[in-house]
Design a protein that fits this description.
The chain has 118 residues and is mainly beta. It is built from no helices and nine strands.
């Protein structure tokens, strides 16, 4: 049996400067399925090309796992999430925007920090 990947939009927001952000959750069903993953994408507009800027595995308890993107100023956004199981990748700068992170708790940490999102 092949695995089936399902994605759904959790939330979307835009900044006063016009940047668009979307958070999606992707889960896999089937034999040997892996954990769900939450991704945050950025774009210059709602219809623009999306770039992955943050990806993580959420906690299995379903509480406080959705990211919130807020504008700090015209050149900075902050992604906040209270609990994550593991960070897969994160980006410190997207185009002209600095990306800050406010992550309350990361359950699985490794010696090496997570890499940049490609």
């Amino acid at each position: 049996m092949d695995a089936l990947y399902l994605s759904h939009r959790l939330r979307q927001t835009s900044t006063p400067a016009g940047h668009y952000f979307e958070a999606t959750e992707t889960s896999c069903s089937g034999i040997g399925k892996g954990p769900a993953e939450i991704s945050v994408f950025a774009a210059r507009s709602k219809q623009g090309k999306k770039a992955l800027i943050f990806k993580y595995e959420p906690m299995n308890d379903g509480r406080d796992t959705e990211p919130v993107v807020t504008s700090v100023d015209d050149r900075t956004v902050r992604i906040s999430v209270k609990h994550v199981a593991m960070i897969i990748c994160r980006t410190g700068r997207w185009e002209t925007l600095a990306v800050e992170y406010d992550i309350g708790r990361v359950v699985h940490t490794y010696v090496n920090p997570p890499g940049e999102c490609a």
